């Protein structure tokens, strides 16, 4: 059995406030049990006998502290902001509600949710099921007592495991498709034999999106320092984690301590809706992440069929674009709802995006975006393996094997004084030779644009990689 973290976290800290433990028992035949004890600043220390019980405690504690935050994010990832708040307002990240809704309706289809859920190991499913039950119990209790004023509204509801999958997929595409919400939502075929026309509202939205994209790395970049035995005072590892994630919204960290006696004992921080630790430490090691500089998506310039701008040429053959109809319920001035349909076009690479002046969809070319993390269904399994690692080798091996880190660097140290840096995230397998043959230099170095008219310019597939089209961990 692993040594409880509480024993050395608070030893000698006479000012630490330890509140009475709260024992939770889920009603019903699948009764989950958890114990929550809060210390200074309300940090929850959650103990359970299994993953379902642990998830139950996490969801309950999170809802106690962040009900309005998560409820708002659930509205976002369900593509329902226009329904409740109107189409012209914006998310906390300053994404237009209508554009945001269209993207999440496209992203989180029933099939995509089912595929992600099917890929999860039993432990992860149980964590998520427990989280949902715990959150919903806290919601029911708070509803009886009166919901907090910021979210005392009709858009607050019980959640499901599908909602947690939606939240996870939103996190995955944060640096890919998520940065092109307005460009995806506004992509429409050009009128035949007419110059490209873009309305002023779309131009303004894309200008805001461009500014947001440029700020992303700066605002999320984060810092971390991993120090090994040669430089530490006591010969053990030392880690400084300085995440730059925001204090509000869907990327706000939440501190907690999770224990399954004999199996798991980890403390750190997690993002909303995730029933595990993203950055933190256990008895054996500590780790953190920083946003990496790797490219996690590519654009593909499609050469259009001269007869039809919704068809493109691939290896000399005319191929029809895929058409996915999405509908967004939009709140009208009188309070009624109107369903607004849109078509999202796609190629074999991914959705078509349109950025006037940079990525134009005219009668000759269009641009399609392929995001490596759209197929990353391993991310939760990855972080849970890191949470449980009992050595730096086990920690590192899990990252090489699972390849679930989405878009961050990893720094870690252990009690033996070893230090580790890894840039092993989900990255398209496009080497220098392929770039030289296939990239379009006219776009500049900010974006990687490949020739979408040749199959040989698509991502290379390696049998060693955990996912088709990404670099294997050995590279």
UniProtKB/TrEMBL annotation:
Alphabetized SUPFAM superfamilies for the sequence: N-terminal nucleophile aminohydrolases (Ntn hydrolases) (SSF56235)
Domain of life: Bacteria
Name under which the protein is recorded: Peptidase S45, penicillin amidase
Disulfide bond keyword on record: no
Keywords: Hydrolase, Periplasm, Signal, Zymogen
Leader peptide range in chain numbering: 1-23
Sequence similarity: Belongs to the peptidase S45 family.
Pfam families reported in the protein's UniProt record: Penicil_amidase
Main location: periplasm
One GO cellular component, as annotated: periplasmic space
Subcellular location as annotated: Periplasm
Organism from which the protein derives: Pseudomonas syringae pv. japonica str. M301072
Keyword Signal: yes
GO biological process: antibiotic biosynthetic process
GO MF annotations in UniProt: hydrolase activity, acting on carbon-nitrogen (but not peptide) bonds, in linear amides
């Amino acid at each position: 059995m692993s040594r409880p973290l509480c024993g050395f976290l608070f030893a000698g800290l006479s000012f630490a406030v330890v509140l009475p433990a709260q024992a939770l028992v889920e009603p019903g035949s699948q009764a989950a049990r958890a114990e929550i004890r809060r210390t200074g600043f309300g940090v929850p220390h959650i103990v359970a006998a299994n993953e379902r019980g642990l998830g139950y405690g996490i969801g309950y504690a999170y809802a106690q502290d962040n009900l309005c935050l998560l409820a708002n994010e659930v509205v976002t990832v369900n593509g329902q902001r226009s329904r409740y708040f109107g189409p012209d307002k914006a998310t906390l990240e300053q994404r237009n509600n209508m554009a945001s809704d269209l993207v999440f309706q496209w992203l989180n289809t029933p099939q995509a949710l089912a595929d992600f859920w099917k890929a999860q190991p039993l432990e992860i499913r149980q964590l998520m099921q427990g989280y949902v039950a715990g959150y919903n119990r806290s919601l029911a209790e708070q509803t009886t007592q009166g919901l907090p004023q910021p979210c005392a509204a009709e858009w607050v509801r019980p959640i499901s495991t599908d909602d947690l999958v939606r939240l996870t997929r939103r996190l995955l595409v944060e640096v890919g498709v998520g940065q092109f919400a307005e460009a995806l939502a506004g992509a429409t075929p050009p009128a035949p034999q007419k110059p490209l026309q873009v309305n002023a509202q779309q131009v303004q939205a894309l200008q805001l999106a461009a500014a947001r994209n440029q700020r992303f790395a700066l605002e999320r970049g984060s810092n971390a320092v991993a120090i090994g035995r040669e430089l530490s005072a006591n010969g053990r590892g030392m880690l400084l984690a300085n995440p730059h994630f925001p204090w509000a919204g869907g990327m706000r960290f939440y501190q907690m301590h999770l224990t399954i006696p004999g199996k798991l004992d980890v403390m750190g921080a997690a993002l909303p809706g995730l029933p595990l630790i993203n950055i933190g430490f256990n008895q054996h090691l500590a780790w953190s992440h920083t946003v990496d500089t790797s490219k996690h998506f590519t654009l593909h310039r499609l050469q259009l069929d001269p007869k039809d701008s919704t068809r493109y040429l691939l290896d000399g053959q005319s191929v029809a674009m895929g058409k996915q109809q999405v509908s967004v319920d939009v709140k009208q001035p009188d309070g009624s709802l109107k369903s607004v349909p849109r078509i999202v076009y796609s190629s074999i690479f991914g959705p078509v995006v349109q950025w006037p002046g940079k990525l134009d969809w005219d009668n000759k070319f269009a641009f399609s975006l392929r995001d490596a993390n759209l197929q990353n269904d391993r991310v939760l399994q990855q972080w849970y393996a890191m949470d449980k690692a009992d050595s730096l080798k086990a920690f590192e091996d899990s990252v090489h094997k699972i390849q679930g880190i989405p878009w961050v660097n990893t720094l870690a140290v252990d009690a033996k004084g070893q230090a580790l840096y890894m840039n092993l995230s989900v990255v398209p397998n496009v080497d220098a030779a392929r770039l030289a043959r296939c990239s379009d230099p006219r776009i500049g170095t900010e974006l990687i644009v490949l020739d979408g008219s040749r199959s040989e310019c698509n991502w290379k597939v390696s049998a060693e990689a955990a996912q088709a089209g990404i670099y294997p961990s050995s590279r």
